[in-house]
User: What shape does this take?
Amino acid sequence: MAELLLALDVKGREEAARVALACEGELDAIKIGYPLVLSTGLGIVKELAKANIPIIADFKVADIPNTNALICEEVFAAGCSGIITHAFCGSDSLQAIVDGAHDHGGSAFVVCEMSHPGALDFLSGANAERMAKMAKESGADGIIAPATRPDRTAVLRSVIGGSMKIYSPGVGAQGAQPEDVKKYVDGIIVGRAIYESADPGKAAHEFRVRAL
Assistant: This one.
C-alpha cells in the first residue's frame, strides 16, 4: 500500500485552504512548493497544518552547505515536517540538508530522477543512481523517483534497498497511474489531477483506493 501525497501547487491562501479542506481524511501528506509559498509566505504552513497533515517543503534545495542549513532552519521553524532537496550540488550540500532536517526532528528526501521528459537530459541513468547512493550514504529518509518511468524507479529501489522511502511524482496529469509504480514505492504524489478536479476530495479518495 502506498501513501498519497498531494502536490499543492496552487497560488493563494483561499485556494490552498479550499483544496486541503476538501481532501481532509484522504491524504498522508501535503507537498508545497514555490508557487504557493511565494504567493502566500511560509505562514501558509501553519494554516495547512491545522488539519493535522504533515507538510513537506518541496523546495528542491540546491545551494552551498551554509545556505542549505539556513533554509532548513526556516522550513522547520515554519512547521514543516520534511524537506526535498537536490543532490547534484554534492555530498557536503546534501549532508547539510539531511543534518538540518534531523536536527529539527524532520525528514529529508532527495531528488534522484524527475518525472518530466527533460529529466532524461541529466537526471537519469548513472547520474540518478549515483545520487541515490549518495542519498543512502547521507542518512536521508528517502528519495524522489518517477512514476512516469517505473523501470527506473525499480532500479533506484535496488540501489537504496528497502529501508528508505521512495515518493513518486508524475501520477495523474503526467500520465502515470498508481498501479504502474505502487509496488516499488512508499508514496505516490498527485497534483493537478486532484487540485484541478471539480471535486478534489473525490479525486483524492479515488487515488487513495488505487494506491492500496
Observations:
- The CA atoms of residues 5 and 106 lie 17 Å apart.
